[in-house]
Amino acid sequence: MYSKNFSGNQKSNAGDQTNQTNQTNQADKASQKNVLQREIIMQEADYRKSVNEKIKLEFEIRKIKDEEGQLRISLQGKELGLAKMQQDMKIAEEAIHKTKKKLNLI
Fold first, then answer.
1. Burial code of 62-96, b = ≥16 C-beta within 10 A, e = fewer?
2. Which residue has the higher pLDDT, 84 or 4?
């Protein structure tokens, strides 16, 4: 009743196995591509985050350097003011000393 064609079935099974293997390989490749694409997206996000942090740090450094320049100018002004005040105090001390001498002479 049943007639079997072994050679035909084997070819069909071999073809099916080849198709299944190809489909499995394609699915594996697609899965690997998806994994790599996700990894690229994460790496790019990390890179952009690093770039943004670098820009922020560079801005802060420029700001601090500007403040440093302003502080140096302020410091120089204060130092000049101090030197002038010390000179004025010395002149005042000498004037006081001369006036006291005059007082003692009278």
1. eeeeeeeeeeeeeeeeeeeeeeeeeeeeeeeeeee
2. 84
